[in-house]
């Protein structure tokens, strides 16, 4: 197999076009520009560039959208303009793109959301899915009955009609107070992968012999809350284990028989998750009062000499905010895009403040530039701690006209963000007095966090650390659940005030919506250390 490359420059955009070809064959190309546009070095906001996709139906297409300046969106659309899927949304920095070439003619449409430049590099290859079907484990009474029916020669239409009516996954009593969940998929040819399984991993579903039914069952607690996606016929590209693992992004989408897609206004099923909340799942505070007065926002770009980059910052001020009110507290959250959308933090704050459950809370959302910079900055990076202390905090004070003491300043985040909140507060306890870490990535170089705990000057720092019961050890390696619990005990032994909670869920924004509100309420009700 030979890969060929061509480059087209269009009004500040560089399209590096890669395609495989056999020796002696004419290169079909993966895409070509419909028109070459001369003009400014930057594509103005709202302008669109379109390329015809020329790839074999069923090819696995992967690539990178690299934004040099501005923000961009990339869509795959049919020749008649009908949207097929959103491939990249509101991108600054670099992001990966994965999809399966559709059967009919299609175009790649790149839109400048903010004036800038971008480079799109893509390649297509035949990566037929491998047949994967682990031996079925029949523990669901419904599936046992279906297996017997299929073996006797019956079809599956009645079963699927019932599942469409009830909604998936299938929920049954599991014994000893537990619940049995069975995830289902219909009609895949070669394999199905469950993204976000209760095991904490991406699990292969099994095919029920002689049928179009794929399934896998799990026993879970009765207060489980989770989100997941179904990836049918996952391509099997050549390359590293990671490249093969991320290929599931090409087909992963919301479960078509689940009645609770999230978010409801997503552009397509590929940009949605499916959700499940068992009856005993805990209430998620702050999502109930839609009539609460809304806060206001200030959006700005903050250049950093410490980090050598610039990022977006969103400042939320609650309704009627008074910068000199001594009750004020400051909440700083990482992963801004997620905590402004998947976790509707402003709505949660509006409600909890209006209901008197939280004091007036100024909130700051710190955006990540892209996955690469996030992985470089958040995991215990001393330069990032200095950016927070010497560049971000003064910028917040200048725009809000509020100076809030460390004892009322909260650093919060999930995953790498939970790790960053902990590391930054331990580095600068004189500025950041409260840590909220949700499913913190404390597996990452745990000796560095332990060292920070050991040598940080003891201040009146407070910690609230939560984790998911589905984030436990895998193959003998400690998971987020175990490392979070151990860090809680380490901090308590050092004399810090530590609270926490473990949820029947996984590494999941659907869980973190409630975990954030629970943490803020816990902090608000704790004894003040002013």
Label this structure with key terms.
about 525 residues, alpha+beta, Jelly Rolls, Immunoglobulin-like, Rossmann fold, 3 domains, seven-stranded mixed β-sheet, 11 helices
Compact description:
This protein has 530 residues and is α+β, with helices and mostly antiparallel strands. The protein is built from eleven helices and 24 strands.
Descriptive notes:
The chain is an alpha+beta fold. It folds into 3 domains: 2-125, Jelly Rolls (Sandwich); 141-260, Immunoglobulin-like (Sandwich), CATH 2.60.40; 296-525, Rossmann fold (3-Layer(aba) Sandwich), CATH 3.40.50.1820. It contains 11 helices and 24 strands. The chain has helices at 141-151, 157-166, 241-246, 336-340, 345-354, 371-377, 382-400, 416-427, 446-455, 480-493, 509-525, and strands at residues 2-10, 13-21, 31-33, 48-53, 60-78, 83-100, 106-125, 170-175, 178-186, 192-195, 203-204, 206-207, 213-220, 225-232, 261-262, 273-277, 296-304, 309-317, 329-334, 361-366, 409-414, 434-438, 462-468, 497-503. A hairpin with a 2-residue loop joins strand 1 and strand 2 (13-21). The N and C termini lie far apart (67 Å).
